[in-house]
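Technical note accompanying the year-one report. For the benefit of new consortium partners, we illustrate the data format agreed upon in the data management plan: each record pairs a sequence with a structure-token string. No post-processing was applied to the example shown here.
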Amino acid sequence: MHVGYLGSGTWGFCLAYLLAKNGQKVTLWSRNEAFSKKLAETRTHPKLKGITAPLNITFTSDLSQAVNIADILVESVTSKGLRPVMELVLRVRPKPCPIILTSKGIEQDTGLLLPEVLCQLLQEKNSPKVGALSGPSHAEEVIQDLPTSVVCTGYTPDIMGTILDIFTTPNFRIYPNSDVMGVSFGGAMKNIIAIACGISDGLGFGDNTKAALMTRGLHEIRKLSITKGCKETTLNGLSGMGDLCVTCLSTHSRNYRFGRCIAEGLTVAEAKAKIGMVVEGMYSVVSALQLAKKHGIPVPITEGVHAIIYHNLNPKDAVKALLQRAIKEEHL
């Protein structure tokens, strides 16, 4: 199978590497021509040192080269970049092959999850061409072949079967789950809570505080998930609680590290520059708060993270505001 891979960040490079090791021919596309040439010359990613790309990966900045010969497309761009990139893809190839999403997020203003964005562009409700891969998985560990379990989803058994066929390895275990909305929603929201956990650690708070943030954060995710028709049980699994854990607890997580940088006194711009990659939670926190306000659902952790990033609220004041909220009986 020939895979057209869209996006050359660490996750894109990692999954392209995994697919190539599994015997697929991969053409990895980057919008940045200079970066694509550097990848082709060195066959290594600057943020994944010591890993050399297999020879069955071709690097290009020519979108038509990646798209036109592909049997399947996989994307790892960003939640913000998905719509513009896929619009370009559909100009190059108006009737695309199956498309697997690996980005996680909620589109601002529309409130659409990424599979909904793609279905809208394809003009097919619940398109059989659309699938997704999600779950607790850092590129730095997957590319070292460390044991990892994730979830695949899609609107048909065929697309989930395809994902299982091309991605599964002895150490990369994939569980199919037909709840497209639930799998996608958990992956989008966990980045916001990870920023909050990074802020907590940066302020010098302990494990007790982080445990509370993760638990109450999962509660916010569940409450808001109702608006997208998610199954609550999905959020108890790998794409919900699993992804929340790995993103909130690991220094591999750019969202966690971004939050920590903010708490340690860096400005938002300085923190972004230090991370050096897209911080998805910065984008999704706007979308999530829009969704919450539209449906009248209180999401205090999400509100606090938004206020810190976009209204310069002092992180210590945000914590005080959370602690001073009225006490209610715990309902989960």
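Partners are asked to follow this layout when depositing records. The chain has two domains: 2-179, 181-323.
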